[in-house]
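HUMAN:
Just now I want nothing more than another pair of eyes on a protein record. I would be glad if you read both lines and explained how they fit together. I have put the entry right below:
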Amino acid sequence: MTDFRVPNPYAALPELPALEVTSESFTEGAMLGAPQLGGKMGVEGGLDKSPQVSWPAGPEGTQSYVVTVFDPDAPTASGFWHWSVANIPAHVTSLPEGACTGEDTSGLPEGAVVVRNDAGFKGFVGAAPPQGHGPHRYILAVHAVGGQIDLHDDASCAYVGFNLFEKGLARGTTTAIYEQ
């Protein structure tokens, strides 16, 4: 099989100062556990719980944060967006595991906006790579943003990413893996 994996999916975005991202749910280079697996997409035991994530305060000018989970190894030309939550207030520097479980977003801070993921709903969908496709990377990213992102009701994760091109001030990632 040809190695189709994109080495650095964030290379298309401007280089930004680093944010240190830590997570009890995503350990760099480790396999994801059942809470972050895609039960809605057929993974037995998958719970579709968004990961716990923490970060330090962003640089001067930070007005909000965006947190995303992206699989660049999905068998598509555009990867697969599992989650994107924008307009997290600037005073918030962590989200608990399960802040978003499936379509239940009630654990997110007031003002945060979840957009439609590539499974077609506003929420978190866990890892569910095709069986036999090999290991996939799941990149948990936190972006410090200089403003709010103006989102229409049917906004996509890619639309949020497009806005980060101009409004991003700092970014940090951690990457876990999963394969079936």
In short: The chain has a mean pLDDT of 93. The radius of gyration is 15 Å.
